[in-house]
Automatic annotation (TrEMBL):
InterPro entries: AAA+_ATPase, ABC_Ni/Peptide_Import, ABC_transporter-like_ATP-bd, ABC_transporter-like_CS, Oligopep_ABC_C, P-loop_NTPase. PANTHER family: DIPEPTIDE TRANSPORT ATP-BINDING PROTEIN DPPD, OLIGOPEPTIDE TRANSPORT ATP-BINDING PROTEIN APPD. It is found in: Cell membrane. Belongs to the ABC transporter superfamily. The keyword Nucleotide-binding applies. Its main location: membrane. One of its GO terms (cellular component) is plasma membrane. It comes from Streptomyces longwoodensis. This is Peptide ABC transporter ATP-binding protein. SMART domains: AAA (SM00382). It comes from the Bacteria. CDD domains: ABC_NikE_OppD_transporters (cd03257). GO terms for molecular function: ATP binding; ATP hydrolysis activity.
Length: 353
C-alpha cells in the first residue's frame, strides 16, 4: 500500500459539500537521483455535473494528481500525503480492494494513449464487457448488449461487428472513442480525461469534445479534464486550475482565468498561443527558460526564475517566500492586485487581441 505520512486521527479539512475534494496533496517519488516532488500541496474541489480543467506544461503534476486519485502509483516508489475525498470516502487511506471496487465503476479514466491502454491480445468488446460484469454482476449477454450500446453512443460504426475486433483494427479516433465507451460503461460519477484528444486531427477532436459534453449531460458525471490546449479548455471546462511545478498557481472559473488572468505564468501561457487573426509573420512570445527541476525546486515562488515581472516586487519576496493561493478566485503571486491589473491591461491584453 502507498506510503502515507498523514498523522493518524488528523481531522479532515475536506469540503463536505464537494463531490471530489483534494486537500494539501503531496506526491513524492524516490529515484536514484533523489526525491522528486511531483505534487506539492495541491487543493481543489469539484462538484457533480461540472468540469474542472487542469492546464500546465509537461511535468507540472497534472497526470500525477489524477493517477493519485485513482490509486495507480507504484507503492514501492511513491509517498503520498494529504486528503482525497470522493463522495465522502477517503481514497488515500483506502485499501486496494476498496479502490478496485471504485475504479471503472464510480470513477474512471480516459487515458492519453489508447494504444497502450487497450490490450492488443483481447477484443475491444471483451475489454468493455469485463468491467461491467465485475462491477454490476451482469451476465455475458447483458455486458455485450451494454458494450454495443456504448459503442453506438460514442459513434463507432457497425458496433455489433466492431465488438469482436481487436484494437489494431480500429483507427486512432475509433480507439479513443472505444476508450471513452469503456470509461463510461458503468456510468461513473467521476470521469478523468487525460489529454483525450492528443494526436487526433481537429475534426475528430471536435467530435470527441462534443461527445464528452453530451455524455456528461446524460450521465451527470463530474469531469477532470487535463490538457495543454487552452482553446480546448475554453470549450470544455467550467472551472480552471493552472499548475506549475507541482503547485496550483491560479484558480477560478474559465471565464475569469482566461478573460482576466492574474498570474504571470498564466499570462505566459496565453501570450505563447498562436491566434487565427494574427499576422502570419508575427513572432510568438514564449515563456523564457525551462520548467524547474522537481528534484531541487527553487525557493520562494517556483516561477520566479522565469518571471518577467519579479523586479516589480520589492526586496527578495519572490525568491524567499512562497506566495499562498487563497480561497475562491485566486492567484499565488506576490504582485499586488493593482499591479496585476495594471500589467495585464497595459502589457498582456494587447498581445491577446
Amino acid at each position: 500500500m502507498t506510503t502515507l505520512t498523514k498523522e493518524s486521527g488528523a481531522p479532515t479539512s475536506a469540503d463536505a459539500g464537494a463531490f471530489l475534494s483534494v486537500r494539501d496533496l503531496r506526491v513524492q517519488f524516490r529515484t536514484e537521483d533523489g526525491i522528486v516532488k511531483a505534487v506539492d500541496g495541491l487543493s481543489f474541489d469539484l462538484e457533480r455535473g461540472r468540469t474542472l480543467g487542469i492546464v500546465g506544461e509537461s511535468g507540472s503534476g497534472k497526470s500525477v494528481t489524477n493517477l493519485t486519485i485513482l490509486g495507480l502509483h507504484n507503492p514501492q516508489f511513491a509517498t503520498i500525503d494529504g486528503e482525497i475525498v470522493l463522495d465522502g470516502q477517503e481514497l488515500i487511506t483506502a485499501r486496494e480492494r476498496e479502490l478496485e471496487k471504485l475504479r471503472g465503476n464510480k470513477m474512471a479514466m480516459i487515458f492519453q494513449d489508447p494504444l497502450t491502454a487497450l490490450s492488443p491480445y483481447y477484443t475491444v468488446g471483451r475489454q468493455l464487457s469485463e468491467p461491467f460484469m465485475k462491477h454490476k454482476g451482469a451476465s455475458k449477454k447483458e455486458a455485450r448488449d451494454r458494450a454495443i450500446e456504448m459503442l453506438t453512443k460514442v459513434g463507432i460504426p457497425q458496433p455489433k461487428v466492431r465488438f469482436d475486433d481487436y484494437p489494431h483494427q480500429f483507427s486512432g479516433g475509433m480507439r479513443q472513442r472505444a476508450m471513452i465507451a469503456m470509461a463510461l460503461m458503468c456510468d461513473p460519477d467521476l470521469l478523468i480525461a487525460d489529454e483525450p484528444t492528443t494526436a487526433l486531427d481537429v475534426t475528430v477532436q471536435a467530435q470527441i469534445l462534443d461527445l464528452l459534453k453530451d455524455l456528461q449531460q446524460e450521465f451527470g458525471s463530474a469531469i477532470v479534464f487535463i490538457t495543454h490546449d487552452l482553446g480546448v479548455i475554453s470549450k470544455m471546462a467550467d472551472d480552471l486550475l493552472v499548475m506549475y511545478a507541482g503547485r496550483a498557481v491560479e484558480r477560478g472559473s474559465v471565464k475569469e482565468v482566461l478573460g482576466a488572468p492574474r498570474h504571470p505564468y498564466t499570462w505566459g501561457l496565453l501570450s505563447s498561443m498562436p491566434r487565427l487573426n494574427s499576422d502570419i509573420h508575427q513572432a510568438l512570445t514564449p515563456i523564457p527558460g525551462s520548467p524547474p527541476s522537481l528534484l531541487n525546486p527553487p525557493s520562494g515562488c517556483p516561477f520566479h526564475p522565469r518571471c518577467a515581472f519579479r523586479s516589480e516586487v520589492p526586496g527578495t519576496l519572490c525568491t524567499d517566500s512562497r506566495p499562498p493561493l487563497g480561497e475562491g478566485r485566486a492567484a499565488a503571486c506576490h504582485l499586488t492586485a493593482e499591479q496585476k491589473q495594471s500589467i495585464f491591461i497595459d502589457k498582456i491584453q494587447p498581445r491577446l487581441r
